[in-house]
Specification:
Two copies of one chain form a homodimer. By secondary structure, chain A is an alpha+beta fold. The first copy, chain A, contains 15 helices and 16 strands. In chain A, strand 15 and strand 16 (413-417) form a beta hairpin. In chain A, helix 1 packs antiparallel against helix 5 (136-153), helix 6 packs antiparallel against helix 10 and helix 7 runs antiparallel to helix 8. Chain A starts with 16 loop residues before the first helix and ends with a helix. In chain A, 42% of the residues are buried. At the A-B interface, helix 1, strand 1, strand 2, strand 3 and helix 4 of A face helix 1, strand 1, strand 2, helix 4 and strand 5 of B.
Chain lengths: 434, 434
């Protein structure tokens, strides 16, 4: 029989344990932080009716949609984000959910885009949103969640940049460019890549006069705190509001360097109407924002007449994992259990099994090697997998009631009694393995 | 603009928080147990080349496959289980993985089957396998993992039934029915539903003589410990092996009622070649096996010439969740944070935010209500969500430095100081909320 070549589709990835272990740890951390604020988990199907998903993310997204007819002739598509399913979900279950509704959703999405530049056709999104309130408290809390998340992961130096969509809208109106807001916001979104000069030339390309382009940049450039000149009271109001959000965040204990008002943050999506967020890692600004979001005033208007305002953000798992790897953050370990128990005295299988069970009952994970091979071969396996300790017991050790604990990092070995005075595992053994 | 009806596809489900919270808890428990034995997490794509998936689960599965052409004209399909992707994965990465390879994989699969009788077209599987060893230690360990899992979830009374495929094969050979083994195994798999009489009549229907049917039943019926008569040494060997597995499992501390040798366990799949497992909840036998699996001697022969024996099992998440609900196992709670903090004194927003942050830093989750409404309306929300405590602070409390802790289960209220002598949150407060 001819073999089938084992391969994955272009743009799709297998996650090997060495990639999956930090990924699971990151997701656990995110969930723990979300839950500490009372956010609730939900999930939605990978497949939706095509009509639910098309036209929601723009032309580009429609092109990237994985869609097909199912066995029943229904037109279906795979979700391309978690926001459209959230809108459908909230419209469908609004009676049961109750408002305000705070949810997190960590799930896979699919986009058939060109898999160049490290882009994947299958990736995980990690979103949290507060639906059904216009309160600034939820805006503040969204910033706090982003902050707590990055701290909990282990990042020390990062900047959450906040802006208000209205600030940009009013500015464009004053400068006479309301009709081109989408293009202008798109140019502003690229400022980190193309720089101030790039923004200016791009603005003139889409029809801004040189002078107006300069003025716009002056009012959005973080460097010019008070550009003077245009003292529009509406702009002043938006500024004051943003600074109030920042003050409240600092009052909750966030360091002042972690949050900055930055009027150049645009977040291109039409969808946002209020505060918008981006988050840069100070040591790795090049990878772009690792957590972005904002406030919208109508989440689900395609599916319900109920007006559902909300605010939320999305954590960039792939970017964060790349950053953690680059900055050496997070424990790197190939094993999920700390202790390796070689099996090399066949007559004592029951004893090995019992010892492993007792250690697990004490909260210490143990992998027992399944094949009764030479100790050297087993320790090689343990080294490769990245266990912290090997607990070595052969005929002599079983007789004497003592075992050898080998630290697989340092190579140091010590002898410890298995049982303590009370007959339970000895405190020395438990202490050494924790 | 006409609204789009918010709806999910037939056979697909949204998970609301009240379903998702126990689901996440169950998955966490499973992961914790897998990891305590050194199993490693992996993930694979939802979409595979069609040729990887077709023909692997039989005709029925092929019909149920969600398949289509992607934007690049590739024939693709959505995974229908986690075993075929595991085989492809191990064949593809065997060099990097190292053997033995112990993995768990918790992920969604799709089958376009008739969504009757509580069957879904999208559901989650939860598998663990040890690949690359024929050692009985891995068979034993698989039983131990099943045991630990059910205990960790909170089940006390369950029976892991074990059998050996060879026992059944030899029996069929002796009775002259080797050529019909697949049909016979399928009949045996139904024994819990159709009873001994049903098995006998089904066997005669497929061509067994009445007497042979009786003899087969005699040798597989759990009630007849020693049927006598047919003392084939090969059958005796298989029996002895199974009893050795059971003895080893008991030696590791498992109660004798939790594991039983049962020669009627067949596990219909052709794929199994060694030990097979099923697990019944004693109080809910009707829901069927909640954890099943077995040993196979060649996992990936379609993709590689490398012979990869293994053993594993699959946890039935949906069945377990239904059983937990029915037996009242596991904490039922609608909130993810224990503490609800009403916000009803607008002037103290910064104080509310700071208090919530301090509690979170102490490991106590807090949801701050975002809208400054009447206390009664906020407490109603808290009741509905299922918080354990409300921490009530208005103008008076902020002044006095004391707060009211309301137990939302009992309605009891007590007054506690916010800060202790050291300026940190008072020990009374922390103790009351833990």
């Amino acid at each position: 029989m001819a073999l089938i070549e084992p391969r994955t589709l272009k743009g799709f990835r297998d996650y090997l344990p060495e990639q999956m272990i930090p990924r699971e740890a990151l997701i656990d951390t995110a969930r723990r932080v979300f839950r500490s604020y009372g956010f609730l988990p939900i999930d939605t199907p990978a497949l939706e009716y095509e009509e639910i998903l098309t036209g929601k993310g723009g032309e580009e997204t429609d092109k990237q949609l994985y869609r097909f007819e199912d066995q029943g002739g229904r037109k279906v598509a795979m979700r391309f984000d978690l926001t459209v399913p959230l809108a459908r979900f909230v419209a469908q279950h609004s009676g049961e959910l109750g408002l305000p509704f705070k949810r997190y959703h960590i799930a896979t999405v699919w986009r058939g885009e060109s898999p160049q530049r490290g882009r994947y056709r299958e990736f995980m999104q990690c979103d949290f949103d507060t639906i059904g309130t216009e309160s600034v408290v939820s805006d503040i809390e969204t910033v706090l969640v982003i902050h707590d998340l990055l701290r909990a992961i282990g990042f020390e130096k990062f900047t959450i940049r906040i802006n208000h969509r209205q600030y940009l809208m009013i500015l464009l109106e004053i400068l006479g460019f309301s009709s081109q807001q989408t293009e202008v916001l798109r140019v502003l979104d690229k400022r980190d890549k193309i720089g101030v000069e790039g923004v200016r030339s791009a603005l003139t390309e889409i029809g801004f006069a040189e002078e107006k382009a300069r003025e716009l940049i002056l009012h959005v450039d973080a460097a010019s705190i008070d550009p003077g000149g245009m003292k529009d009271p509406r702009l002043e109001l938006q500024k004051r509001r943003l600074h109030e959000v920042r003050e409240a965040v600092l009052a909750a204990g966030v360091h002042k360097d972690r949050v900055r008002v930055d009027h150049s943050i645009a977040r291109g999506l039409d969808y946002y109407t209020g505060i918008v967020f981006e988050t840069q890692l100070d040591d790795l600004a090049g990878i772009g924002s690792v957590c972005s979001g904002g406030r919208y005033d109508n989440l689900a208007n395609l599916y319900t007449k109920e007006k559902l305002p909300g605010v939320g953000a999305s954590l960039g798992l792939d970017r964060l994992l790349a950053a953690m790897e680059e900055l050496g953050i997070g424990e790197k370990r190939g094993s999920t259990a700390p202790v390796f128990l070689p099996y090399f005295d066949e007559g004592h299988l029951a004893d090995y099994l019992r010892l492993a069970a007792r250690l697990r009952a004490a909260g210490i994970g143990v992998e027992l090697y399944p094949d009764c091979k030479k100790l050297g071969a087993q320790l090689k396996y343990a080294d490769r997998r990245g266990f912290r300790f090997a607990l070595v017991l052969g005929e002599d050790e079983w007789k004497s009631g003592r075992c050898q604990i080998k630290d697989l990092g340092t190579g140091a070995t010590r002898s410890v009694a298995l049982d303590g005075a009370s007959g339970a595992l000895s405190p020395d053994l438990l202490a050494a393995l924790r």
